[in-house]
Backbone:
């Protein structure tokens, strides 16, 4: 098995960025989901309710992020004042507000009042707990890394009238060379010197119905409906695995993947 692709999402729920290599920190891939869009009350906004977020691209720089949709763009510097309490699911995080210009730009693009915030201290900002394990997380939903396999997508696509690309599932790490759904039984993996610990399957939502290029839903309910016919488990409709970084380090496309347990 080998790593076939790597991805980050600099701003939670905006467009993906493809990478040749990634450094994995305990809270997730470097540059992944350190920014987030929130409503005026501080609650996170995602493609679940705003599928057009997929059309906004985010490019990281050493001192900020550039947002772009079509001919419209804005450069946002990393804010330094931790002043806004925000919520992502059950977590409350004290984050840095990116200011009025960024808020106005996103409000115009998304047609709803919103703001952009930044997590400046990911090692401390969002501490989580799952089945006796304590860990830190970025603004990612539940765990720092999402892992998917090409074989499982291939099996799903054989059941669909219209095949969907992997980007619908918004993974960080994609692995080639496994059998379909083999990842259900994995517990620990080594990629290079990095060790990953698989915590639980990833339950999927309406976001996987969104075309990530157009920000629209081309076939209502798909592929979620088909996936639900054979991948419905206790936690929901499953595709991919949620992962913790047990030993940080750099991984790259083409790296060999070793199953430890």
Residues:
């Amino acid at each position: 098995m080998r790593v076939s692709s790597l991805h980050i999402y600099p701003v939670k729920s905006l467009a993906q960025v493809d990478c040749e290599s990634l450094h994995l920190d305990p809270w997730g891939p470097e540059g992944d989901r350190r920014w987030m869009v929130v409503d005026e009350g501080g609650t996170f906004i995602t493609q679940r309710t705003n599928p057009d977020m997929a059309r906004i691209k985010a490019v990281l720089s050493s001192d900020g992020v550039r947002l772009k949709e079509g001919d419209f763009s804005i450069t946002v510097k990393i804010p330094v004042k931790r002043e806004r309490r925000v919520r992502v699911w059950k977590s409350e995080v004290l984050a840095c507000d990116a200011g009025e210009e960024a808020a106005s730009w996103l409000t115009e693009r998304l047609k709803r009042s919103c703001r952009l915030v930044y997590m400046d201290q990911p090692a401390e900002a969002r501490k989580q707990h799952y089945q006796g394990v304590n860990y830190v997380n970025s603004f990612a939903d539940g765990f720092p890394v999402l892992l998917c396999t090409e074989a499982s997508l291939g099996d799903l696509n054989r059941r669909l009238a219209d095949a969907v690309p992997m980007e619908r599932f918004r993974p960080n790490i994609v692995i080639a060379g496994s059998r379909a759904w083999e990842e259900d039984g994995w517990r620990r993996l080594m990629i290079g010197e990095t060790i990953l610990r698989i915590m639980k399957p990833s339950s999927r939502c309406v976001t996987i119905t969104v075309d990530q290029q157009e920000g629209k839903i081309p076939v209502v309910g798909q592929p979620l409906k088909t996936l639900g016919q054979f991948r419905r488990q206790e936690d929901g409709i499953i595709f991919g695995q949620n992962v913790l970084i047990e030993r940080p380090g750099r991984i790259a496309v083409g790296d060999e993947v070793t199953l430890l347990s």
Summary: The domain at 2-259 is CATH 2.40.33.20 (M1 Pyruvate Kinase; Domain 3). The first strand starts at residue 2 and ends at 8. The chain has one domain: 2-259.
